[in-house]
Design a protein that fits this description.
alpha/beta, Rossmann fold, 2 domains, 7-stranded mixed β-sheet
Length: about 280
């Protein structure tokens, strides 16, 4: 078995990942958690005790940092110098690696992996999978991976870790670190999350103007489903002339002409600096 050290094991992400790692026959997982509450959660969930960082790093081939973006710099600075030569350090988000928060060390591998989360359009039928919105429990999802530093042969190992911690995985995509930063925060948070917040605020506005709340919610979510299916070509179809006209006049009201500048390198870096 491959020895894997999971740092932040008692946190939200650490517990999610730890549950899937506990099912694995490929990885021997040792867990590290600094908080007393987190150590208690690990003990209650998996029946094992957390170990010290030194114990976890001894012989570790893979080191997973399941800690917040804002803590990566400090945690990595304390762990990476002690990591075995040839080991792989895995981050779960591109922000801190993109910002340069990982220490320079040529004889370790840096690998970044992030879940896509279960897609809106899917073929899930089991109740647990249909309600698994985050992923990593029952619903299939994609993952994106970047080999930031290290031998090419290490990519396969990093991908196996990703498929284990985010299981069940439908598709695995290889991207660059820069590409991952474009996906998040650029595409998923700056654009998608912002527009979804606006849509929710729009729903609240029509409710305030007299539409019953349940009617507004049903109407919006239903239209999101069919409009999204057409726009993303899940179904064959076209919009009505009225809808096309509404888009033609609505988009300039809602969006700045230069909105795509959020994907410019300086904007992505500024966003990541704020995150980290």
């Amino acid at each position: 078995m491959i020895r894997l050290a999971l740092f932040g094991a008692g946190g939200k992400m650490g517990m999610r990942l730890g549950a899937n790692l506990a099912k694995s026959s490929e990885f021997e997982t040792v867990r590290v958690e600094v908080s007393e509450e987190g150590r208690a959660r690990v003990k209650a969930a998996f029946g094992v005790d957390c170990v010290t960082a030194e114990e976890a790093l001894d012989g570790a081939r893979v080191i997973v940092l399941a800690v917040p973006d804002t803590a990566i710099r400090a945690v990595a600075a304390s762990i990476v110098p002690k990591a075995p030569a040839g080991s792989m350090i895995i981050c779960l988000d591109a922000a801190a690696p993109f910002a340069g928060h990982l220490p320079e060390r040529a004889d370790v591998t840096y690998f970044v992996t992030h879940p896509c989360h279960p897609p809106i359009f899917n073929d899930e039928t089991e109740p647990a999978a249909k309600r698994d919105f985050f992923g990593g429990i029952a619903a299939k999802q994609g993952v994106v991976n970047a080999l930031m530093q290290g031998p090419e042969a290490d990519y396969a190992l990093g991908e196996r870790v990703a498929r284990t911690i985010y299981a069940p995985v439908a598709r695995s995509h290889r991207v660059t670190l820069e590409g991952m930063a474009l996906l998040e925060p650029g595409l998923s948070e700056t654009v998608a999350a912002s527009l979804l917040v606006v849509m929710r605020e729009a729903m609240e506005e029509v409710i305030a103007r007299g539409v019953p709340p349940e009617a507004a919610r049903d109407f919006l979510l239903g239209h999101m489903n069919i409009l999204g299916a057409v726009i993303f070509k899940e179904v064959e179809g076209v919009f009505s002339d009225a809808c096309n006209k509404a888009i033609e006049f609505g988009k300039p009201v809602l969006m700045r002409d230069d909105w795509k500048r959020v994907f410019e390198p300086e904007e992505i870096r500024a966003s990541i600096d704020r995150i980290t």
